[in-house]
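Entry under discussion copied across for reference:
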Amino acid sequence: MPGCFIAFEGIDGSGKTTIARIVADRLRERRHDVVLTREPGGTAAGQKIRAVLLDGQFELSPETELLLMCADRAEHVSCVIRPALDAGSIVISDRYEGSTRAYQGHGLGLELALVDQVIGLATRGLVPDLTVLIDVDTTTAAERRSRDDTNVNILDLRDIGYRERVRDGFLSIAATEPAWRVIDGSGAVDNVASDALELVTQSIATRLTLR
Protein backbone atom coordinates (compact mmCIF):
# COMPACT_ATOMS: atom_id res chain seq x y z
CA MET A 1 0.00 0.00 0.00
CA PRO A 2 1.30 3.50 -0.73
CA GLY A 3 2.65 5.57 2.13
CA CYS A 4 2.22 9.25 2.93
CA PHE A 5 4.57 11.96 1.73
CA ILE A 6 5.08 15.12 3.82
CA ALA A 7 7.41 18.00 2.96
CA PHE A 8 8.56 20.80 5.24
CA GLU A 9 9.52 24.10 3.64
CA GLY A 10 10.73 27.51 4.78
CA ILE A 11 13.57 29.99 4.52
CA ASP A 12 16.88 29.20 6.21
CA GLY A 13 16.40 29.94 9.89
CA SER A 14 12.68 29.22 9.88
CA GLY A 15 13.13 26.19 12.13
CA LYS A 16 11.73 23.71 9.62
CA THR A 17 14.55 21.19 10.13
CA THR A 18 13.97 21.10 13.88
CA ILE A 19 10.19 20.86 13.45
CA ALA A 20 10.48 18.09 10.86
CA ARG A 21 12.68 16.08 13.24
CA ILE A 22 10.32 16.54 16.19
CA VAL A 23 7.30 15.54 14.11
CA ALA A 24 9.12 12.44 12.85
CA ASP A 25 10.07 11.46 16.42
CA ARG A 26 6.50 11.90 17.68
CA LEU A 27 5.10 9.80 14.85
CA ARG A 28 7.61 7.06 15.63
CA GLU A 29 6.44 7.16 19.25
CA ARG A 30 3.00 6.32 17.85
CA ARG A 31 4.56 3.32 16.06
CA HIS A 32 4.50 4.78 12.57
CA ASP A 33 7.23 3.72 10.16
CA VAL A 34 8.86 7.07 9.31
CA VAL A 35 11.65 7.93 6.89
CA LEU A 36 13.12 11.37 7.65
CA THR A 37 15.23 12.74 4.82
CA ARG A 38 16.38 16.04 3.33
CA GLU A 39 17.24 17.99 0.21
CA PRO A 40 19.82 18.52 -1.00
CA GLY A 41 21.85 15.61 0.31
CA GLY A 42 19.38 12.82 1.00
CA THR A 43 21.50 10.25 -0.87
CA ALA A 44 25.21 9.48 -1.12
CA ALA A 45 25.39 11.22 -4.49
CA GLY A 46 23.25 14.03 -3.13
CA GLN A 47 25.75 14.72 -0.37
CA LYS A 48 28.36 15.46 -3.03
CA ILE A 49 25.93 17.71 -4.89
CA ARG A 50 25.05 19.50 -1.64
CA ALA A 51 28.72 20.32 -1.05
CA VAL A 52 29.06 21.83 -4.54
CA LEU A 53 25.89 23.86 -4.07
CA LEU A 54 26.40 25.22 -0.58
CA ASP A 55 30.06 25.39 0.40
CA GLY A 56 30.82 28.45 -1.73
CA GLN A 57 33.79 26.92 -3.53
CA PHE A 58 32.16 27.47 -6.92
CA GLU A 59 30.41 30.54 -8.28
CA LEU A 60 27.43 28.90 -9.95
CA SER A 61 25.05 30.43 -12.46
CA PRO A 62 21.33 30.35 -11.56
CA GLU A 63 20.77 27.75 -14.29
CA THR A 64 23.53 25.51 -12.92
CA GLU A 65 22.11 25.85 -9.41
CA LEU A 66 18.67 24.83 -10.68
CA LEU A 67 19.97 21.80 -12.54
CA LEU A 68 22.08 20.60 -9.61
CA MET A 69 19.19 20.96 -7.19
CA CYS A 70 16.99 18.91 -9.49
CA ALA A 71 19.70 16.33 -10.15
CA ASP A 72 19.84 15.82 -6.40
CA ARG A 73 16.04 15.52 -6.33
CA ALA A 74 15.90 12.98 -9.16
CA GLU A 75 18.28 10.73 -7.24
CA HIS A 76 16.40 11.36 -4.00
CA VAL A 77 13.03 10.44 -5.48
CA SER A 78 14.39 7.34 -7.21
CA CYS A 79 16.51 5.97 -4.37
CA VAL A 80 14.76 7.12 -1.17
CA ILE A 81 11.30 8.62 -1.48
CA ARG A 82 9.52 6.33 -3.94
CA PRO A 83 10.86 3.08 -2.44
CA ALA A 84 9.82 4.20 1.06
CA LEU A 85 6.34 5.20 -0.11
CA ASP A 86 5.95 1.92 -1.97
CA ALA A 87 6.82 0.13 1.27
CA GLY A 88 4.03 2.00 3.05
CA SER A 89 6.23 4.34 5.08
CA ILE A 90 5.57 7.95 6.02
CA VAL A 91 8.23 10.04 4.29
CA ILE A 92 9.10 13.42 5.80
CA SER A 93 11.41 15.49 3.64
CA ASP A 94 13.19 18.60 4.87
CA ARG A 95 12.71 20.56 1.61
CA TYR A 96 11.34 19.40 -1.72
CA GLU A 97 10.23 21.04 -4.96
CA GLY A 98 8.80 24.10 -3.21
CA SER A 99 12.31 25.18 -2.26
CA THR A 100 13.44 25.10 -5.88
CA ARG A 101 10.48 27.20 -6.96
CA ALA A 102 11.14 29.70 -4.15
CA TYR A 103 14.97 29.86 -4.18
CA GLN A 104 15.87 29.41 -7.82
CA GLY A 105 12.61 30.72 -9.29
CA HIS A 106 11.52 33.64 -7.14
CA GLY A 107 14.89 34.24 -5.48
CA LEU A 108 17.20 34.06 -8.48
CA GLY A 109 14.62 35.21 -11.03
CA LEU A 110 14.58 32.16 -13.28
CA GLU A 111 11.47 31.76 -15.40
CA LEU A 112 8.96 29.90 -13.26
CA ALA A 113 7.64 27.82 -16.16
CA LEU A 114 11.19 26.63 -16.86
CA VAL A 115 11.76 25.83 -13.20
CA ASP A 116 8.57 23.76 -13.13
CA GLN A 117 9.62 21.85 -16.24
CA VAL A 118 12.95 20.84 -14.72
CA ILE A 119 11.26 19.93 -11.44
CA GLY A 120 8.80 17.75 -13.34
CA LEU A 121 11.64 15.85 -14.97
CA ALA A 122 13.27 15.23 -11.60
CA THR A 123 10.15 14.22 -9.68
CA ARG A 124 8.29 12.39 -12.47
CA GLY A 125 5.13 13.92 -11.09
CA LEU A 126 5.59 12.92 -7.45
CA VAL A 127 4.14 15.62 -5.20
CA PRO A 128 3.69 15.59 -1.41
CA ASP A 129 0.35 14.76 0.15
CA LEU A 130 1.01 17.74 2.42
CA THR A 131 3.56 20.55 2.41
CA VAL A 132 3.99 22.46 5.67
CA LEU A 133 5.52 25.92 5.27
CA ILE A 134 7.14 27.17 8.48
CA ASP A 135 7.06 30.93 8.01
CA VAL A 136 9.12 33.55 9.83
CA ASP A 137 10.23 37.02 8.79
CA THR A 138 13.72 37.37 7.34
CA THR A 139 15.04 39.35 10.33
CA THR A 140 14.10 36.59 12.76
CA ALA A 141 15.53 33.96 10.44
CA ALA A 142 18.83 35.85 10.06
CA GLU A 143 19.15 36.25 13.84
CA ARG A 144 18.64 32.54 14.33
CA ARG A 145 21.20 31.68 11.66
CA SER A 146 23.75 34.05 13.20
CA ARG A 147 23.69 31.99 16.40
CA ASP A 148 24.91 28.91 14.51
CA ASP A 149 28.23 29.82 12.92
CA THR A 150 29.05 26.13 12.35
CA ASN A 151 26.37 25.76 9.69
CA VAL A 152 26.91 28.83 7.49
CA ASN A 153 26.44 28.23 3.76
CA ILE A 154 26.53 30.31 0.59
CA LEU A 155 22.84 31.19 0.92
CA ASP A 156 23.53 33.01 4.21
CA LEU A 157 25.83 35.39 2.34
CA ARG A 158 23.21 36.54 -0.16
CA ASP A 159 21.59 39.94 0.36
CA ILE A 160 18.37 40.65 2.22
CA GLY A 161 16.53 41.32 -1.04
CA TYR A 162 17.18 37.75 -2.15
CA ARG A 163 15.90 36.35 1.14
CA GLU A 164 12.79 38.53 0.98
CA ARG A 165 12.06 37.29 -2.54
CA VAL A 166 12.44 33.70 -1.40
CA ARG A 167 10.06 34.19 1.53
CA ASP A 168 7.54 36.00 -0.67
CA GLY A 169 7.89 33.16 -3.18
CA PHE A 170 7.06 30.55 -0.57
CA LEU A 171 4.00 32.50 0.55
CA SER A 172 2.76 32.99 -3.00
CA ILE A 173 3.12 29.27 -3.70
CA ALA A 174 1.27 28.40 -0.49
CA ALA A 175 -1.56 30.76 -1.45
CA THR A 176 -2.22 28.84 -4.67
CA GLU A 177 -1.47 25.22 -3.73
CA PRO A 178 -4.32 23.37 -1.99
CA ALA A 179 -1.98 20.83 -0.35
CA TRP A 180 0.13 23.54 1.33
CA ARG A 181 -0.41 24.81 4.88
CA VAL A 182 1.35 27.74 6.56
CA ILE A 183 2.40 27.79 10.21
CA ASP A 184 3.79 30.80 12.06
CA GLY A 185 7.27 29.67 13.05
CA SER A 186 8.06 32.58 15.36
CA GLY A 187 6.61 30.98 18.48
CA ALA A 188 8.00 28.44 20.93
CA VAL A 189 9.39 25.31 19.27
CA ASP A 190 7.00 22.97 21.12
CA ASN A 191 3.98 24.99 20.03
CA VAL A 192 5.09 25.12 16.39
CA ALA A 193 5.82 21.39 16.44
CA SER A 194 2.38 20.63 17.92
CA ASP A 195 0.68 22.67 15.19
CA ALA A 196 2.71 20.87 12.54
CA LEU A 197 2.02 17.45 14.05
CA GLU A 198 -1.72 18.13 13.98
CA LEU A 199 -1.59 18.94 10.27
CA VAL A 200 0.53 15.89 9.51
CA THR A 201 -1.71 13.60 11.55
CA GLN A 202 -4.76 14.85 9.63
CA SER A 203 -3.00 14.23 6.33
CA ILE A 204 -2.04 10.70 7.33
CA ALA A 205 -5.60 9.94 8.40
CA THR A 206 -6.95 11.24 5.11
CA ARG A 207 -4.43 9.17 3.21
CA LEU A 208 -5.43 6.04 5.11
CA THR A 209 -9.10 6.49 4.27
CA LEU A 210 -8.22 6.59 0.56
CA ARG A 211 -6.44 3.24 0.59
About this structure: The chain has one domain: 4-209. The mean pLDDT is 93. Residues 4-209 form a domain with the Rossmann fold fold (CATH 3.40.50.300). The chain has eight helices and five strands.
